[in-house]
């Protein structure tokens, strides 16, 4: 005859094993889901970093070329005239005014 206490112990032992395996499976699924989310987040970060690099390149490229063109233009302009600021323009206005007066006097009078 079978011992009833021994049978109850086996049933509890089987129940404990089933619960233990269910917990292990649950934690295995939970860890897999965590790894999947981590992978997705890493991919998003990589994509955002690439977009940021592209944006930095597009923003910095025109600024650098604009600064270079301004420097070249300024060097060229400064090389043309050694006069203090404004006197070159005043001389040009004076010269044009004289020419206008000569033309006016020639054709009107």
Q: Tell me the distance between the termini.
A: 148 Å
Count helical runs: 2
Q: Indicate the structural class.
A: mainly alpha
Indicate the mean pLDDT.
75
Helix content: over 70%
Rg from C-alpha positions?
A: 44 Å
Tell me the number of structural domains. 1
Low-confidence stretches: none
Q: Which oligomeric state applies?
A: single chain
Task: Let me know the largest β-sheet.
Answer: none
**How much strand?**
under 5%
Helices and strands, in order, run as HH
- Total strand segments: 0
The rough form would be described as rod-shaped
Overview of this protein structure:
The chain is an all-alpha fold. Helix content is 91%, strand content 0%. It is rod-shaped, with a radius of gyration of 44 Å. The chain has helices at residues 4-80, 87-108. The model has no long low-confidence stretch (mean pLDDT 75). The protein has 2 helices and no strands. The protein has one domain (12-108). Keywords: Membrane, Transmembrane, Transmembrane helix. The chain crosses the membrane at residues 18-36.
Secondary structure topology:
Blueprint: H1 4-80, H2 87-108
Would you kindly provide a brief summary of this structure?
With 109 residues, the chain is mostly helical. The protein has 2 helices and no strands. The mean pLDDT is 75.
List keywords for this structure.
single chain, 109 residues, mainly alpha, 2 helices
